[in-house]
What we know:
The complex is a heterodimer of chains A (312) and B (286). With 312 residues, chain A is mostly helical. Helix content of chain A is 69%, strand content 0%.
Amino acid sequence: MVKRKRKGSIIRDTSVSSKMLDVIIHLTLVFILIVTLFPVLHIASVSLSSGKAVAKNIVTFYPRGLQLNAYKSVLETARIPRSFKNSVIYTTVGTLVNMLMTITMAYPLSKKRLTLRGFYTTLVVITMFFSGGLIPYFLLVKKLGMYNNIWALVIPGAITTWNLIILRTFFQSMSVELEESAYLDGAGDFTILIRIVLPLSKAAIATISLFYMVSHWNSWFQAMIFLKEKSKYPLQLILREIVLQGQYIEEMVKKGMMALADQMGSVGTDEYISIEKLKYATLFISMVPMLIVYPFIQKYFVKGIMIGSLKG
Amino acid sequence: MILPGLVYYIIFHYLPMYGVVIAFKDFKPLLGILGSPWIGFKQFNRFFSHPYFFRLIKNTFLLSFYSLIFGFPAPIILALMLNEVRNATYKRFVQTVSYLPHFISIVALVSILNLFLSPTTGAINVVLQRVFGMKPIYFMAEPGWFRPLFVGSGIWQNIGWGAIIYLAALSQVDMQLYDAALVDGASRLRRIWHISLPSIMPTIIILLILRIGTLFYVGFEKVILMYNPATYTTADVIGSYVYRRGLQHAEFSYGAAVGLFNSVINVTLLITANWISRRVTEQSLW
Lengths: 312, 286
């Protein structure tokens, strides 16, 4: 993608009203920065602070009295590492299926010579606006025997029409000459796709994959309605159970307590692990993967949106 | 090559559309779809005459309407503001930070709400008590707070992400237009109003139509995570109702009927919005 450098302004507006607007804008932006970053900092801080500080509610955006035992407690609860592992599996398998299906659908749709192309496109676009609803969807998945296993999380969402369209738009923007010469050399559709088109589409493929990955990692609802055994639950669902429904807290508190034989349950101590600290720690753990990966991948997302906006 | 994708769409998108037919039947799992007796509009009538009917419509409408009038302009305003920032590094920094919330899961978002608004330990309530001397407020259990919290957290999560598209469009505008306007004596605000805004108007309209077309879907996953029996009066929307009655209570036909009703309303809104837009602005989806 060619990056266009915007030409600088030749003249500057130095009127009072312009400067005032600048001030307002800057204040608002700073406000947005604070409001966005504070929650993350606060969560991390509370989870890392001493029991005493948390009980007195004096933690703001930095930890007071470093204590890691809340994390120890949380990570030792079997459910959390296991659900983490589950999420990794679901995300990996899911994204692979997604990409397979989306690419094999986007590529033909991008070719004008596809018979019934308009029909297929309309078919696909309609699904963005109209669906059968939750109940028929649920019944169908169940009927197909995917209840309580990974396929219910992977297959029904195999293609997201939005991503499909982005990829199709991208394929359409690729020059035809390369493919045409490959045809003349006797290459078939699949060969062209794999050998020529894909290597050239690395950026788009990366972006779409990331979209799917984030979507899988953050999903919880499909898991909730289709998975019966808790050992199969993904991270977000466990997070919900712990933080929003207050489950397993007792178990974790006890575990944390038993590790400090002579500090059982005394509220005012530094080592005291309150329910609140456990929740904050669990929440932070669920956010960490995304926070770590984010700086590296965010530029892909921006590119993806820009490609997608060409369609609009 | 297109076959697997087509098969997928037919099975997972169009088959459920056919499955919607159970809304007109008294569905018994053992009899299957074809075998269940036909009862016509009975499920629909049951829904229409239900005491919760108006409440559900009202909640669904208000929740999505507020999301629309507050949540839709927010990214636009942010984009316009960021566009006025001259320091490129600062601009990029704010942008990057602002769309971070988009990537945390909805469960994490609602967890943040729960934890921060907790009457005993939540940061917000601590501040209210210490700085303002107020009594703690049980935010998540007050029906009156549900809508502001829902819409507000939605804005927090999506303002940065939504601004991306608009910023992309704004960056394409020729600087000379601004210079010319400045020379003509246009104030900053006027320049924004007459140059920046029109340049993203097509994008705004398309996104607006799309948004209206999904108005009644209103993010029921988030509603389910946020609501509790104490807040049903303002929180319960059609989507969450379908989940509760249709899935949790396994009243499949009834749930399908309500779901179908929801979809039909959405499609109607979409077609209407598109039609109005085509008449008024000559921009439309089709």
